[in-house]
Structures are given as C-alpha cells and as structure tokens.
Amino acid sequence: MFKVKILCPSTQQPVDTGIATSQQSWESTSATNNRVRCPHCSETHTWDKPDAFLEGVSAG
Ligand SMILES: [Zn+2]
Q: What domain range includes position 46?
C-alpha cells in the first residue's frame, strides 16, 4: 500500500492526504478537487491527481 501525499505550496513540505491506495487502484482512479488540511501552514489545500505522489508504506 501507498500513502497519497501532496506538497504544500507554501512550505514545500509533504502533506499526508489520509488516503491509502495500491498502485493499481491509484492508476485507475481520477482524484480531482480533493481537499486536505495542511499541518504545515494550517491552510486547506485543494489538489488533483497530478499534484499527488505516492509514498510507500513498509509492510509489517
Ligand atoms: Zn500548506
């Protein structure tokens, strides 16, 4: 599984969107107009799939 993250546009820090996905389901989804509360700058960021990246979660 992967965590879906975006980069905060203000601080360039990774923000966990709270979404977990597999590579396969991520490729078949069309995530648009999502919102996430940013812990770095306290803003709410709107993000689309191209803004996001996957971070692997180690099993175990
Ligand atoms: Zn932010």
A: 2-56
